[in-house]
Amino acid sequence: MVNEEAIKEAVASIITAIGEDPHREGLLDTPKRVAEMYAELFAGLDMDPKEELKTGYELGHREMVILKDIPFYSMCEHHLLPFYGVVHIGYIPDVTGRVVGISKFARVVEIIARRPQIQERMTTQIADAIMEGIKPQGVAVVAQAEHLCMVMRGVKKPGTNIITSAIRGLFRQKAASRAEFFSLIQNNK
Ligand code: ZN
Fold first, then answer.
1. How far is the CA of 96 from the centre of ligand 1 (A)?
2. Residue 29: is it exposed, middle or buried by C-beta count within 10 angstroms (0-12/13-18/19+)?
3. 49-86 pLDDT tens trace
4. Which residues are in the CB-under-5-Å shell of ion ligand 1?
5. How far apart, in whole angstroms, are the C-alpha atoms of residue 103 and residue 91?
């Protein structure tokens, strides 16, 4: 659980440390607001994304399913600044054709994004959660994101899209499945 009291004290210290006055009217409630915001932004630390994938349907659908452009917002663990963009997920159901509702995948992405993250690990955690949660024949996850720590500071490269991928199961073994996934997520983009 996020300790909101401790965050409040820490934020008040930061405000003082940058040379501002924590008692100035505009800053008075800032520690409390930041503490509540962090509790929300890091809520995924206490959650298991696999729980979201428990209810599935055996539709006998054994073809590839693709979910494109799932939006996400996360916090880079190096600077605690946001990085955000979209995630594309492809999976090939197990032999019974078991599928899971689209909203469940969006929840998996949200839970994993709401932690201090690096984009590479976020991508592999999404793939692994789906692999373990629904045991499909294969999973492919691609994340595209802009990192505010690259835009506002340091190298200042706005518009740079970082792309990461995690490939599991059949997608790893079969070049044709991989190619189908990548061509489908690139359509009209
Ligand atoms: Zn960063």
1. 42
2. exposed
3. 999 998 887 778 788 999 999 999 999 999 999 999 99
4. 76, 78-79, 149
5. 15
Packing angle, helices 4-17 and 30-41, rounded to 10: 130
pTM: 0.93
Q: 3-class secondary structure for the chain? A: CCCHHHHHHHHHHHHHHCCCCCCCHHHCCHHHHHHHHHHHHCHHHHCCHHHHHCCEEECCCCCCEEEEEEEEEEEECCCCCEEEEEEEEEEECCCCCEEECHHHHHHHHHHHHCCEECHHHHHHHHHHHHHHHHCCCEEEEEEEEEEHHHHCCCCCCCCCCEEEEEEEEHHHHCHHHHHHHHHHHHCCC
Q: Ligand 1 centroid to 80 CA: how many Å?
A: 7
How far apart CA 189 and CA 184 sit, in angstroms, is 10
